[in-house]
Amino acid sequence: MVETLADKVQLHGFNNLTKTLSFNIYDICYARTASQQREYIEYIDEVYNAERLTQILTEVSDIIGAQILNIARQDYDPQGASVTMLIAEQDGGGTQHGARPDAVAAHLDKSHITVHTYPECHPDDGVSTFRADIDVSTCGLISPLKALNHLIHSFDSDIVIMDYRVRGFTRDVSGGKHFIDHKIDSIQNFLDNDILERYQMVDVNVYQEYLFHTKMRLREFDLDDYLMGASAADLTAGEARGIRERVHREMLEIFYGRNLSR
Fold it and tell me: Catalytic one among 116, 178, 213, 248?
């Protein structure tokens, strides 16, 4: 549970700190032929179309204790989708791990949740990558950190890059400014144990700026989960090794944010 300043200090007026959780989520696939690449794009567009993304973001709103005020969504041609939700705080600030809040009483209309998807295929080496950019930005008592585990599980991704930042300030009754309203050392503090076990993680935190950055990549993977229109059993040992190396290289380059020497 995220313990906030309001649990300990009497505030003057509304808690107008802005808390933003941003994700880059990546899914990697090996699709060698043009038909397999089309199949992968069609699969992504079906699984993560605007309707499905709206469902995921609606679940996020329930988890953090927010009321949806407005939804704008769009599927794009030839591929990709976007969803934007304007949300309002509910009385009580939400609950943890997906439980629904008990009461609905809107207090603000300055929070939002957005998602944009970017499927792409490389024409030469067969590696295809799906990226989803997600932002959960809230004011008041509700915290985007409560949706952290649900979002990671919803996309079941190979690479997750997260930024969490607290901006602005709120005042107590004596006029003192408070630039953060809860304790946090790392985004990892709010992750479920199964996620911590599955992923290798690196932090880059700037505590004096209330900026927290965590990168995650899968520790292990099964090649069959990355083949589109093929099976590892149909490959020679050399083919399987080569594809595994390509997929692993793609993961490392995304994780470290640079091209690796070949």
Answer: 116
